Amino acid sequence: MVENLLSKIADLKKEKRAVILAHYYCNPEVQAVADFLGDSLALSVKAQSVDADVILFAGVNFMAETAKVLCPDKRVLIPRPDAGCSLAESCDAKDFAEFKKRYPGHKVVSYVNTTVGVKALTDICCTSSNALQVVNSIPEDQPIIFAPDRNLGSYIQKLTGRDNIVLWDGACLVHEEFSLEGLKALKEAHPAAKVVVHPECKAALVEEADFVGSTAAILTYCDQSEAEEFIVVTEAGILAEMEKRMPQKKFIPAPTADAACRCNECKEMKKVTLENIISTLENLSPEVLIDEPTRKAAERAILNMVEIK
Ligand code: 13P
Ligand code: SF4
Fold first, then answer.
1. pTM of the predicted model, to two decimals?
2. Could you identify which of 5, 40, 149, 209 might form a hypothetical disulfide with 274, taking C-beta atoms 3.0 to 4.6 angstroms apart as the criterion?
3. Could you please report the per-residue DSSP string of 211-228?
4. 103: domain CATH number?
5. In the chain, which stretches have pLDDT less than 50?
């Protein structure tokens, strides 16, 4: 059955000259059909250079929007346009425009987890991979608005020691769910394990980390580390790639406050399935469309980021 779906997707990719880009938080079977699997930064960079007529984005809607901003001449498809991101949704473009007015003279750095409308109000985007480099590229005496993630923002404030960064008060509901007590108990039970934490988590969890980084940076750290056990404090979808790349190592997902709720899974990312990938490729729809003035403004902010790397 799954084999039939996989071979159907392979045929459709050829027929439509399509590539599939997917984030590490997608379902494992979706990750398996991706031509390119990556974190938010790698996916943005890759979108610019794919040789295809069609990009199918397996992820949440801000990711597909980013691909469309960078590739206006390609057809960008998203199997579930309703797959949203709590972090992007915590920053409404109209409210953000009002917020900006309160801080004249500030440069705006925003995480790629934003709507295209917020990107259009941004000077330079960043991801969790390059937020530090992006902020460090701005002169020290230049005040900054950092949006929308208060956790990533306060982590960057701490790393840079800058007191001229104003934070928007947003967060990812998945990364905010991890339990500090649960993590401490897991550390006691596995004293040799290294703790890897995504910077979208609360500061108290970040402080428990041996390594803090984006999903791609966490994968590289685990690969290069001599440790054999890791406690993983980020969305659980990444475990599929960890186990595939490092089958000899052990990865333990960190618990959330309510262990039964599977809150360490981003339900929005899991909306993409093999079945909806097939129907999207067959119909070449749903497609991401963005009005040109908004796209152009957002493009500048993303390109400013990509140029820094
Ligand atoms: P990265 O892909 O930058 O690690 O971000 C994780 C995330 O939450 C994506 O939505
Ligand atoms: Fe958004 Fe959080 Fe899901 Fe990433 S894990 S897509 S930040 S809700």
1. 0.93
2. 5
3. EE--HHHHHHHHHH-S-S
4. 3.40.50.10800
5. none
